[in-house]
Amino acid sequence: MTTIELPAATTARAFAPARIRILCALFFLSGFPALMYQLVWQRSLFRIFGVNSESVTIVVTAFMLGLGLGSLCGGRISRRSKLKPLLLLGVIELATAAFGLVSLQIFEQVGALVADLPLPALAVINLVLVLLPTLLMGATLPILVGYLARTSGQIGGAVGTLYFVNTLGAATACIVCAMLIFPHLGMHAAIMIAAGINIAVGLGAIAAHILLSPAPTAESPTLAAAPSAPIFGMGFVALLAMAGGFISLSYEIYLFRAISFASGSSSLAFAITLYAFLSGIAVGARRAGRSCETLAPKDALRQAARELIWANLFGALFLPLMTQLAWIGNGVLGVAVIMIFLIARQWGALLPYLSQFGIAADARTGQRTALLYFVNIVGCASGAVLTGFVLTDHFGIRQIAVILLVGGTMCAGALIAAGQTSRQEKIRLGGLAIAVLIFGIGAIALLSNRLLENLQAKTLSDHDFAEVVETHSGIITVDTDGTVSGNGMYDGRFNTDLKSDRNGIVRPYALSLFHPAPRDVLMIGLSSGSWAQVIANNPDVSSLTVVEINRGYLELIAKHDDVKSILQNPKVKIVEDDGRRWLGHHPDAHFDAVISNTTYHFRANATNLLSTEFLELVKQHLKPGGIFFYNTTNSRRAQRTGCTAFPYGARFLNHMLVSQTPIAWNYERWRRTLETYSIDGKRAFASDGTDRARLDELMADYRQDSTTIESCPELLKETAGKTLVTDDNMGTEWRYFLHME
Fold it and tell me: In which order are the strands placed within the sheet that holds 489-493?
């Protein structure tokens, strides 16, 4: 029997398509754990360093910069002539899994040591914490692009294909995490699953490297098609890639801000927004990659300009459609998802096109791709900082939409002006871009003037809000009846009158019912300032520290006579910070009462103030006999958690009252306090018969009965089987809209 040996080039050619398909499948799966790590790590770091906008910006920026630096490292590695991409991918995935398995423990230990450092130091610490895994993740794209480009000769096609499969894997992870992993399994399980996928991908890549023939290298030109020459200088495409990254990430922040308001800032809304955005980026990259493979350079350039013009048109239509279609209720969120996908699809095409226009298919392909990817990420990081932290503080959501529309038009104009097309073609495309800009500005001005009113009411509102305050921490609205809402969800009313209780103001007035001498009080959350006004004027209170994350509430309070005096009250100290972070930073601060009248239990990051871990933190800040009085918004899981964490407690209305010592319910003391209550020189109750009768009613209404007060033994019996709220399971944040409270 005669053995026939095939030439090495023939063997490599036969196996190349199989290697590319395997590589794409592995890179798709690689995107899945990358997104899971990002979601879990961000949440873990937010819990340590706070969810105020500074911390959020630092964490997100550090993650992106790590990816960018990793791409530069991958670019240098890609220049090696005997590069083995599948083997290298396998090693990177296994190393990422090793870090992932211990990541949460590392974050917790480091966070406990550095939590008191100033903001610049925290920025550096965040970058260091995520540097190793993000370096590994970021290195893979330029390495694999270098390999595919030398195989096909098409840079745009290689970038588009790999960007597509990896981003699509990340988008898929968004939905799987939001619907399955987070609500049912929690954060640590998510890390274990992500690491497991890393290991599977790593072993699969190594096995493919061993079983298939060696990959073609720069010394195997027989596999490469004739490469197309760059039509732009590297400096121009790098500048445009940076601008595109800035606008694209700014769009993500702006779009999420709108859909978060429309949904009442639910965690699921964030996941759906991210899914739509990443899916759009993936599909746009794939479309651009195919265009680069099939179109002549001038036609591809013309198509790239059209993509940006369409991006601006979709961006201009987003707010008008959200405003005018609010009447369909929650269905408007579906419209938002479609528009987010379309906007992201157009911007996702930019990077593959720029790669095709500015990078040659040679031994330095990977390095140049890495540089382009890096400057794109620098633009994204700049967008996170400037848009998420600066623009949102100085401009409203409609103004930001116009700013992004102008920026997108400038990008389209730059591409059109620099393109190798006829003067007539440039005028035609440029005129179209300007027409979209004018149309967009007009549509935003005329058709979205009641955007917030309509989205909050889920109907076409017939009146304007009385007040709107937009800051980087969120959007606060005040309706004409005095109802205050934060990010689209009810947040209280301006009212301190117990005789006309429209906002449950009896709860802060009841402080003396629970505690004999609440001298030093901490309150987490300010909202309308009504609670702070009542507590500060309790005759037994000598100091009130208020921690509020959104300084926009101070602007509102200064305009309302009922509450504005707390801003000058010598008893009151107001701190702008995340409540949990502030407690962690002040271990020596102790209080007779800690009060938390914060948001609904199912909203994003609400678990941070309801979990077992947070309750343990509060314990450390209570004086002997101190109480913790906090809003559970009727979550039975949250109420059971409170009764489990503290030996003594009860539900009072929708609040939990817990302590490490028996609680002295004293109605006589409470009545005496109410009789002497005075706010801004005005008595809460006069001495006439009408007010005495009202006090009699209050004492009768709030006597211990099952509707008003439920002791912990009774509550624990009624909630048997309910899972405790922990930082790991995130309470009901991912379960509420799935009807799994």
Answer: 467-471, 474-478, 483-486, 489-493
- Does residue 260 fall inside a structural domain? yes
| Per-residue model confidence (pLDDT) at position 223 | 40
Report d(CA 106, CA 112) in Å as an integer. Answer: 10
Return the H-helix or E-strand segment holding 710.
strand 709-711
- The answer to whether the beta carbons of residues 346 and 318 sit under 8 Å apart is no
Q: Stretch 610-629: mean pLDDT, rounded?
A: 96
Handedness of CA 276, 486, 52, 736 (dihedral sign): negative
- Give the residue ranges of DSSP H helices in 185-233: 187-211
Instruction: Classify residue 484: in a domain, yes or no.
Output: no
- Are 216 and 240 in a shared domain? no
CB atoms closer than 10 angstroms to residue 368: 25
The answer to whether position 409 is within a domain reads yes
Confidence of residue 666 (pLDDT cuts 50, 70, 90): very high
Q: What is the CATH number of the domain that holds 5?
A: 1.20.1250.20
Residue 470 makes CB contacts below 8 A (sequence gap 6+) with 392, 395, 396, 397, 476, 552
Same domain, 174 and 264: no
The strand ranges marked E within 97-231 are none
Residues 565 and 439 in one domain: no
Please report the DSSP string for 301-343 in residue order: HHHHHHHHHHHHHHHHHHHHHHHHTGGGTTHHHHHHHHHHHHH
**Would you say residue 367 has pLDDT above 80?**
no
| Range of lowest pLDDT (25-39, 130-144, 662-676) | 130-144
pLDDT, averaged across the chain: 86
What mean pLDDT comes out for the span 49-53?
64
- pLDDT at residue 228, as a whole number: 56
Q: What are phi and psi of 637, to 5 degrees?
A: -65, -45
564 sits in the region (left: phi over 0; alpha: psi -120 to 50; else beta) called alpha
- 243 and 211 fall within a common domain: no
Distance set, CA 495 to CA 95, 528, 656 (Å): 57, 8, 22
Query: Are 252 and 210 in a shared domain?
Result: no
pLDDT score for 118: 67
Burial class (CB in 10 A: 0-12, 13-18, 19+), 564: middle
Q: Are strands 572-576 and 543-548 parallel, antiparallel or unpaired?
A: parallel
Tokens 């008008």 correspond to 320
Taking only the tens place, the pLDDT of each residue in 69-84 is 887 887 777 676 566 8
Q: Which two tokens stand for residue 448?
A: 């979205």
Report how far residue 589's alpha carbon sits from residue 108's, in angstroms, rounded to the nearest whole number. Answer: 22
Question: In this structure, are 555 and 505 located in the same domain?
Answer: yes
> What percent of the chain lies above the pLDDT cut of 90?
49
Claim to verify: residue 359 and residue 385 sit in the same structural domain: yes
Query: How many Cα atoms sit within 13 Å of 483 on the Cβ side?
Result: 13
Verify that 76 and 203 share a domain, yes or no. Answer: yes
Per the structure, the complete domain to which residue 105 belongs is given by 1-224
CA atoms within 13 A on the CB side of 194: 37
pTM over 0.90: no
**Given 402, 429, 463, which residue is the final one in a domain?**
463
**Lowest-pLDDT choice from 52-56, 57-61, 98-102, 220-224:** 220-224
Asked if residue 592 belongs to a domain, the reply is yes
Q: Specify the CATH number for the domain of residue 672.
A: 3.40.50.150
Structural domain total, the chain: 3
CA distance 469 to 712: 40
Q: What percent of the chain has pLDDT over 70?
A: 89
Q: Please report the sign of the dihedral spanned by the C-alpha atoms of residue 546, residue 550, residue 554, residue 559.
A: negative
Residue 410's pLDDT is 96
Between residues 16 and 332, the one the model is more confident about: 332
For the segment 120-144, what is each residue's pLDDT rounded down to a tens digit?
676 677 777 777 788 888 788 777 8
Among 463, 497, 523, which residue terminates a domain? 463
